[in-house]
Amino acid sequence: MSKRRIAIATIALLIANFMGGLDATIVNTALPAITSDLNGIRLIGWISSVFLLGTAVTTVLWGRVGETIGNKKTFQIAVLLFIISSLVGGMSTSMVMLIIARAFMGIGAGGMVSIPFIIYADIYPNPAQRARALGWVTAFYTLSTVAGPLIGGWLVDALSWHWVFFINLPIGLISLVMLQLAYQEPPVTGAKHDFDYRGASLLIVMLVVLLFASDSLASSGVRTVILLVIGLLMMAAFYQVEKRQAHALIPVALLHNRPVQAQNLIMFLMNGFVIGYSVYAPMWAQGLLGTNATLGGLTQIAASILLLVGTRYTAHLMIKLPYKRIVLLGTLSVLISALAMFMATKNAPYWWLMVSGGFEGLGMGLAFTPMQVSIQDGVSQDLISVSTTFGLLFRTLGQTFMSAIFGAMLSLSTARQVGGNVTSRMMNQLTDAATAKNLPQNLIPAMRTILFNGIHLIMAVGLGLVIVAVLINLFRKEPVAQPRNYEK
């Protein structure tokens, strides 16, 4: 491929990445309008959770589909599924219809965000070149997280909430056309293998069971334990099936690659903290400091900007320093962020949240790229695809599991503390600046204490996750780069 074609193909993939990042922030902005129009406050949590679930359970499956029919065609199918589901979502007349559309959007997103990383490994076989490309991935994603609330707010105010879904259609079609014209994929070679249906079925059911176990923490401890035991038994069964499968969904050789799996575990833990900060820092700003929704959302700006800075700078560091040392710098930066949130008092100033977010974004920017490159270069050529998607699965699961667990923790903490004149409904109103002003002013200090105790518990667990990630990075072995032909 010529440099011009590589550039156009990269832009096509970056546009899809932008669309994926835009979806999360733009939909969150529209949730109040959706809830009001469809009368669906009871089911509002499913709009996000079912999307993450669809993404998590299909990430590895898309990689295997790509090996069978080609990554270009697989990516295009995933994007088509995403934009068609977006059209249905925008036309939804009920919460159930919207939730079903979001589930299929999540399935499409699983391929839309994972397959590009495999394509990058093809068009940028040199690690330094690929690191620069991954820096642009982060840049586009960062831009989407900053632009999402602004675009979402304007669409809801000027048009309607339906357009936060309709906007995906032109963006997705542009990406498809550009990739079709520019990317010349090598022919799919090698023997055709039967798809690992047993392994795929076990993986999907296992992840669904474990996710429901996490979600059940707030409602039933017994149900949580039962689902957890079932999930672990299915995990053992999945391993036994894959061990005997000639063309396994997740080859045992990859599972036994401890240096690569150590990095996946680090990404799981760090993304677990990141989702905690992303969700609860805005709630901290609004519920404890009394800011409006706009300032609550702006707590993420420093994280987004320094995530971009960290990722762009990492491409230069990877030429000079060992990958493990760069990851150490990243995990220590995230550790500072977690410590700041853990040490923050109920009256901590707004700028404290911004500084914490800055360290979190910088650390993730430093750590992600070298780990993403080494989980590809640390395996044999035939495992690049599945290693890439398996790593992305860990990132998604870190956010999905910990999002459910943190929500359950806050719910349980609040339920234990409310009583007397303070009700759960009043606590819900406290987290929204528009409704908090209608609460009895004499009860707000007590309510803020209740909310602080719940969020502080979440930040304590988040700190624990990051400490474990730092320790794993200190004692792990760096994946050994496998021979590659860098001439392209």
Structure description:
This protein has about 500 residues and is mainly alpha-helical. The protein is about 80% helix and about 0% strand. It contains 19 helices and no strands. It has helices spanning about 5-40, 45-70, 70-90, 95-125, 125-160, 165, 170-180, 195-215, 220-245, 250-255, 260-285, 295, 300-320, 325-345, 350-375, 385-415, 425-430, 435, 445-475. Helix 8 (about 195-215) packs parallel to helix 16, helix 13 packs parallel to helix 15 and helix 16 (about 385-415) runs antiparallel to helix 19. It is globular, with a radius of gyration of 22 Å. The protein starts with a helix and ends in a 13-residue tail after the last helix.
Q: How many distinct beta strands?
A: 0
- Helices and strands, in order, run as HHHHHHHHHHHHHHHHHHH
- What is the average per-residue confidence, as pLDDT, rounded to a whole number? 81
Low-confidence stretches: none
What is the global morphology? globular
Helix and strand composition category: mainly alpha
The level of helicity is over 70%
What would you report as the Rg, rounded to the nearest angstrom? 22 Å
Number of helices: 19
Largest β sheet strand count, sense and barrel closure: none
Strand portion:
under 5%
* Termini gap: 8 Å
